[in-house]
Amino acid sequence: MSASDTDLLTGAINRSLPARLVARVSGGLLRLFLVAVALLWMVPTFGLLVESFRNPAQYANGGWWDALVHPAQLTAGNYVALLQNSTMMSSFVNTIEITVPATVLVVLVGSAAGYAFAWMQFPGRDAVFLIVVGLLVIPIQIALIPVVKLYALMGISGSIVSVVIFHVGFGLPFAIFLLRNYFAGIPRDLMEAARMDGASEARIFFRVILPLGMPAIASLAIFQFLWVWNDLLVALVFSNASSQPITVALASQTRQFGSSIDILAPGAFVSLVVPLIVFLAFQRYFVQGVMAGSVK
Q1: Neighbour count for residue 117 (Cβ, 10 Å)
Q2: Which of 125, 153, 230, 236 has the fewest beta carbons under 10 Å from its own?
């Protein structure tokens, strides 16, 4: 027996029991288990989809699975009622008007600040960055009452602008922290070469930093979009009847469950499918951003 064969045999014997178990199940059995978990995880979403097409008159006669046996229960009338409901449609538009600016502003300001903290020299840079990191631990609930009073003094209470400003303010610390760490990993030689070619800081930012930082920026955009789109607490506090997003509209409809049962399921599914589409559209960049820095 050669020395290499002896080393392989010794390594196989010395492997721990968990390592041997992982090696045994890392093939088809593990994949089958993961597929089963994924399918089980998607059951509520599939049930909501079926329920959104189900005739409201059949809700009291059984669960959504009955529609799979009796397809005649399915109808598009629920979505027609949803489109004709002015409250739900205006709340859907409000959600877009809140989510898009809050996401874009956080990405733009966070990218610029992350670049400044990573590659620009200015007095107190490290101290200011520590303050930004410290803001990550401040709960949203602490700021609700002071910000409500501040908005009242500014005269913007109950407006879409007030909700956007709050989301931007609490989204920036995480954005700056994430992007600064990612930008700091970009090779210094690229910056020096760009400066030697006469590029300004703004040109370096737009032509070098943003393209190379796209995975982290896309990950940040997904996180921010999902947080703002699915938010209920901030919207309940700062919005009113004319500026409420779809989460608040759905919550208010549940109080009138008997009279609005035909629009709750389709409204909830529409509220779910939009962020799902956004995630799938940026999934490639999201995976790159999550895995960035894990392999050198």
Answers
A1: 21
A2: 153
Bridge partners, 74 (sequence order): 54
pLDDT tens digit string along 197-210? 888 888 888 888 88
pLDDT tens for residues 32-46?
A: 888 888 888 888 888
Domains of the chain by range and CATH?
A: 3-79 (no CATH), 84-291 (1.10.3720.10)
- If you write DSSP's letter for every residue of the chain in order, what string do you get? --HHHHHHHHHHHHS-HHHHHHHHHTTHHHHHHHHHHHHHHTHHHHHHHHHHTB-GGGGGG--TTHHHH-GGGB-SHHHHHHHH-HHHHHHHHHHHHHHHHHHHHHHHHHHHHHHHHHH---TTHHHHHHHHHHGGGS-HHHHHHHHHHHHHHHT-TBSHHHHHHHHHHHHHHHHHHHHHHHHHTS-HHHHHHHHHTT--HHHHIIIIIHHHTHHHHHHHHHHHHHHHHT--HHHHHHB-TTT--HHHHHHHHHTTHHHHHHHHHHHHHHHHHHHHHHHHHTHHHHHHHHHTTT--
